[in-house]
Amino acid sequence: MKDLNSILNHQREKFREVFNYSAKELQKRIQEIRPSNVDGDIFSNFSSDSDGRKWQLAVLKMLEDDISKDIYFKFQEILNARKDYHCNSCATCCNLACSEFSPEELKKRAESGDNFAKQFLSVFIPYSSKEEARKVYPEYIALLEKNKENEVYFYHCPKLTEDKRCSDYENRPQICRDFPDNPLTLLPVSCGFCEWKEKSEDMTLLLHAMIEIVEYYKEKIPR
Ligand code: SF4
Ligand code: SF4
Fold first, then answer.
1. From ligand 2's centre to the CA of 88, what distance in Å?
2. What are the pLDDT digits (tens) for 28-52?
3. 99 close to 106: Cβ distance less than 8 angstroms
4. CA 173/CA 182 separation, integer angstroms
5. Percent of residues, the chain, with pLDDT higher than 70
6. CB-ligand 2 contact for 192 (6 Å cutoff)
7. What does the alpha-carbon distance between residue 3 and residue 140 come to, in Å, rounded to a whole number?
8. What are 193-198's contacts with CB under 8 Å, separation 24+?
9. 179 CB under 6 A from ligand 2?
10. Looking at the CA of 187, which ligand is closest?
C-alpha cells in the first residue's frame, strides 16, 4: 500500500503531465480556427473589425460555450458516480478536519456570510493541540508537516459518540453529507469513497488542469 506522501506526489506529477498535454491540445484547437491571413497570436491587440479580433471572439466563445460547459458536465458525472458509494462510518472525517483558517478567522468569515465557514463552525471545534489530532490520523499529520506551506488548524466534531456514531445525524449540515466532494481529497484507507476517488481521480485532474488553462486564456485574451 502506498503511503500518503507518495500518493500526493503521484497526484502532483500526474497533474503536471495532464496540464502540459491539455495546454498543447487546446493550443492546437485554437490554431485550427485561426484565419490564414492573421498575423500575431491569440493575445495580440487586433482592431475591432479585423479577422484577428473575430478569431479571438470565436476562441472566447469556444472556451465559454463549449469547453467550460463540457468541464461542468463532466464534473456532474463524477459527482453522480459518487452516489454508488457509501460512507462506512469509520468516523475519521468527523474526528479530524483541517483548515487553513484559525477559529477566529473562521468566525470572521462566517460573520461576513461565508456559508462553508458557518457550517464548519456549526460542527467542528479546535483540538487542544496538534498532538491530540495526531492520535486520530498520524500519517496525515506527518504528511501535512512534510508538505507544510501554510499553517494548518485541526478540528473535531463533539457530536461524534464514543461508538463512532453521529449523535445528530438527521440534522448534520451539508458539508457532512457531501464529504468527500472532490476525488482529489486525501482519504483514509478506511473510507468508503476510496474506490470512487481512484476511479475518478484522473478525470478530475484533467478537469482541474482545463479550468486553469481556460481561465488563463480568458484573462489574457483582450476583451
Ligand atoms: S455532525 Fe455528525 S456527521 Fe457531521 S462531523 Fe459531526 S459527527 Fe460527523
Ligand atoms: S472518512 Fe469516509 S467512510 Fe469515514 S466517516 Fe468520513 S466519509 Fe465516512
1. 6
2. 999 999 999 999 999 999 999 999 9
3. yes
4. 17
5. 98
6. yes
7. 10
8. 193/82, 193/85, 193/87, 195/85, 196/81, 196/82, 196/84, 196/85
9. yes
10. 2
